[in-house]
Amino acid sequence: MDWKGWKDALIDVVFPGECPICEQGAYRNDGAFACLSCLDELLWINGARCKKCGESMPVPVSIELICSNCREFPLSILSVRSMFKLNEQGRALIHSIKYGGVKRVMGDAPHWFHRNRGFINFIKDAVLIPVPLHRRKMRSRGFNQSLWIAEEFAKVAGGRTVVYDCLERVRSTPSQTKLSRNERRNNVKNAFALRAGTCLDGFNEFVLIDDVYTTGSTLDACAEVLLKSGYPKVRAATMGHG
Ligand SMILES: [Zn+2]
Ligand SMILES: [Zn+2]
After folding, report:
1. Which ligand lies nearest the alpha carbon of 33?
2. Closest ligand to Cα 80
3. What's the 51 CA to ligand 2 centre distance in angstroms?
4. What residues does the ion ligand 1 have nearby, CB within 5 Å?
5. Ligand of minimum distance to the alpha carbon of 20
6. Tens of pLDDT along the chain (242 residues)?
7. Which residues surround ligand 2, an ion (CB under 5 A)?
8. Of the bound ligands, which one is closest to the alpha carbon of residue 71?
């Protein structure tokens, strides 16, 4: 066995596991958990995008546009940034965190930031607020993936970036997956509130954190809690964009 073979064998012993996307190999790519080839397959959102929801748009970067969805269904939230468009690989990555509970996948966050220009500046020095789970869901899942994402993002962004888990889901809502855009909006209306004892004094810039952006209904319902409390500067950042 050559030196690389020995090194890979040793890494397998020290870091057992596999790429969360293709489920092969592990920890052999500059410390990344996912293979570099799998990270290459993710549809990183760089360049032109909708200035509200962050959707990729086929226009020159200098023209600021709002996509048809955002024109038809205006968001309360100021703007959204997502790391990548959801494809098979993106879904697999998020699935490993959200349903697999593989928290160490979040250790790859620095590699993701390298591939999405401007993402780090979007969240830096802001208060990152994870979208909360209802306590029943929290009990059955055992963790909130949005909190994991927020914590890792804050760690990588550094500076004055902090995580404040200050929202709670006061109403358990049915899954959004099969609902239309309007049904989603009604489904999550008034489902969120500030936790008792929350103090946002001295904070100004807020970024809600979730695993995926789909229609923005959940993020908007969270944003409205902050808007009603007198905090207008609410943005959102997610890993995937559906
Ligand atoms: Zn892979
Ligand atoms: Zn849009």
Report:
1. 1
2. 2
3. 7
4. 19, 21-22, 35, 38
5. 1
6. 777 667 656 655 665 568 889 888 655 566 778 888 899 999 999 988 999 999 998 876 556 689 989 999 999 999 999 999 999 999 999 999 999 888 888 989 999 999 998 999 999 999 999 999 999 999 999 999 999 999 999 999 999 999 999 999 998 887 888 888 888 888 888 899 999 999 999 999 999 999 999 999 999 999 999 999 999 999 999 999 99
7. 50, 52-53, 55, 67, 70
8. 2
pTM of structure: 0.90
Kindly identify the ligand whose nearest atom is closest to the C-alpha of 56. 2
Tokens of 7: 């090194």
Radius of gyration (Cα) for the chain, nearest Å? 19
What are the tokens at 56?
């990729």
